[in-house]
Specification:
Elements (H helix, E strand, L loop, with lengths): L19 H11 L5 H21 L4 E2 L11 H4 L3 E7 L5 E2 L2 E2 L3 E10 L4 H10 L5 E2 L1 E4 L2 H5 L14 H21 L4 E5 L1 H5 L3 H9 L7 H13 L7 E6 L18 H6 L5 E5 L19 E7 L9 H11 L8 E5 L14 H19 L1
Parallel strand pairs: 1-6, 7-8, 8-9, 9-10, 10-11, 11-12
Antiparallel strand pairs: 2-5, 3-4
Helix pairs in contact: 1-2, 6-9
């Protein structure tokens, strides 16, 4: 039961651990010691080697590991019209620590003119024999992180205008990737997973948002963004509960958002975190309609310990009680390096996990 369209039986979320040389070169560029051209040359070589490694494992789709990014989301939004990434006084708090203190805000009308990620995709596409996959943050991220206070009220006195402009900008982004030949695009939609956490929902209420309405608002934005994509372009959503240096933010099963997630958002598939009890049980999979595919994130990227094949197969079988096994796939629960720092495991451990995912998928689905 090998799949010809994504997500594939053995797949991965997107980000991968950066090699030491790349990290050192990026640090030199940040310090002004080398040029952008010098950095790009090192990035290019690292991505070429990465793609060869991904292909050698038997993956049907490859990414550039997000090697040209510092953060999974800031690097995208800083190049959208009207958006600004700035040095914040408040870091993003995780369980056990915090990331660098960067913020995101809207200072003008949100739009899309051009984006360096298009060139990043061109490079990836020209250096792989299989399907190149691109990842970008979901439009909901631009609202969820700061809410009303992160959006200039003089530019958008009515938030409905903001949501409209944002979905229109994303529609142009999707079409631009499609013109470049992208047929596998992933939205990193972490916020719907956060909306399953009572603590996060309480925080939203305190700042004036309605956690019952937000899933529907976000679903509408995503649909408007992807409605004009080519028929052969697969769009997937990736949900997780925070990922920075192996730390996390939110907890809670998918039940509060499951119906909207699976039935109100017109994507082709999902990458869903299920590596720990923080993600709840598989019962929300009962909402998955025919024609959609779920990549079960059963393999953790938070530690290097290798899951047993038998345990993974048992969990796939458990999930198939709620969703037909032909609609399921296997993947890591998140990226290995949502930021350039990466999670707390080694390169060898990362590759062992991906290799095992390919092997288990072959043994389960053929």
């Amino acid at each position: 039961m090998k799949r010809s369209t994504p997500p594939f039986r053995a797949d991965h979320v997107g980000s991968l651990l950066r090699p030491k040389e790349l990290l050192e070169t990026r640090a030199k560029h940040a310090a002004g010691e080398i040029s952008l051209e010098d950095l790009t040359a090192v990035e290019d070589r690292a991505i070429e080697a990465l793609v060869r490694k991904e292909e050698s494992l038997g993956l049907q789709a490859v990414t550039d590991g997000e090697f040209r990014r510092t953060f999974w989301h800031f690097d995208f939004f800083r190049h959208l019209d009207g958006c600004e990434v700035y040095q914040s006084s408040r870091a993003i708090q995780f369980k056990g620590g915090a990331s660098r203190a960067w913020g995101l805000r809207v200072k003008g009308r949100v739009g899309f003119t051009d984006h360096p990620f298009l060139r990043h995709f061109q490079f990836l596409k020209s250096h792989t024999k299989v399907l190149p996959k691109m990842t970008i943050p979901s439009p909901s991220v631009l609202h969820f992180r700061g809410g009303r206070r992160g959006i200039d009220s003089s530019v958008y006195p009515d938030l409905n205008e903001f949501f409209s402009d944002l979905s229109s900008a994303y529609s142009r982004v999707v079409q631009a990737f499609a013109r470049e030949g992208c047929r596998y695009l992933q939205f990193d939609e972490v916020n719907l997973a956060y909306l399953c956490d009572p603590e996060q929902r309480g925080n939203l209420v305190q700042r004036g948002d309605d956690p019952e309405k937000l899933p529907h608002t976000y679903a509408g934005m995503i649909n408007r963004a992807i409605d004009n994509r080519p028929q052969d372009m697969a769009i997937t959503l990736h949900l997780c509960r925070g990922n920075f240096k192996s730390m996390w933010i939110a907890s809670g099963g998918y039940e509060p958002v499951a119906d909207v997630l699976f039935n109100a958002i017109n994507v082709n598939g999902y990458f869903l975190e299920w590596d720990t009890e923080r993600a709840g049980n598989f019962e929300p999979l009962r909402f998955v309609p025919k024609g959609k595919t779920v990549a079960l994130g059963l393999v953790t990227t938070k530690t290097g310990a290798l899951e047993s094949k038998d345990a993974l197969k048992r969990r796939i079988e458990e999930a198939s009680a709620y969703c037909p096994i032909e609609q399921l796939c296997l993947a890591p629960q998140c990226g290995f390096a949502s930021t350039e720092e990466g999670n707390v495991l080694t390169q060898d451990e990362q590759w062992a996990k991906l290799e095992q995912i390919v092997e288990v998928a072959q043994e389960v689905w053929g």
